[in-house]
User: Fold this.
Amino acid sequence: MNSTAIISQTADYIKAKLSGEGSGHDWFHVERVWRNAVHIGKQEKADMFVIELAALLHDIADWKFTGGDDSVGPREARAWLEQLHVGENIIAHVCEIIKDISFKGAGVTSAMKTREGMVVQDADRLDALGAIGIARAFAYGGLKGSELHNPGVAPVVHASFEEYKKGRGTTINHFYEKLLLLKDRMNTTTGKQLAERRHDYMKAFLDQFSREWEGRS
Ligand code: ADP
Ligand code: NI
Assistant:
């Protein structure tokens, strides 16, 4: 099978699997990440086949929905790609990206190992920022039963992935624990540029949120 057919079959498979998901990890999220990854990848002159497969498969089984197990995603991605007879080097590369891509906590430095990984991580992170990022944060917080905001609960700088996974903070704190930190952690020049506007929009949202919380207009 040629690479165009592999990409399109993978897109169909993920679309069927994630359509209608309600926490912001749905097919439309994957489609936006895929599009952003292609855009950034072209500027970075990276291997587009690996980038497209990793973007499409990155949320196939997110640890947030597998009881914290981050080995399920790479395993499911591998089984899918083996069935399509994709070469082992490519499978290993795609699975490594899926394993490493997730944010692991503000105090944890986890670098992507390849240029392709950097591109896909930037594309995924862009979708956690801006207006869509705000919508996704509250959708996810709602699913987990998090409070919107609680002035008595301070943001936490999680020192390990284990601690971050167990965190049960408020959704407003999630902006300070992760979302506002992403702009300075983007890997590529293109990703950094695209993050600016979305970052500023989230800051404006948080300012207005505080104003309203304090009873101002
Ligand atoms: P990551 O790969 O970093 O885990 P995903 O693409 O899987 O990111 O999406 C994570 C989405 O879920 C983001 O939009 C993020 O803001 C949201 N999210 C993750 N943890 C929380 C949380 N504790 N509260 C609110 N939103 C969260
Ligand atoms: Ni994602």
User: Anything to note?
Assistant: Residues 29, 33, 58-59, 124 surround nickel (II) ion (ligand 2) (CB under 6 Å). The CA atoms of residues 25 and 100 lie 17 Å apart. The domain at 3-213 is CATH 1.10.3210.50 (Hypothetical protein af1432).
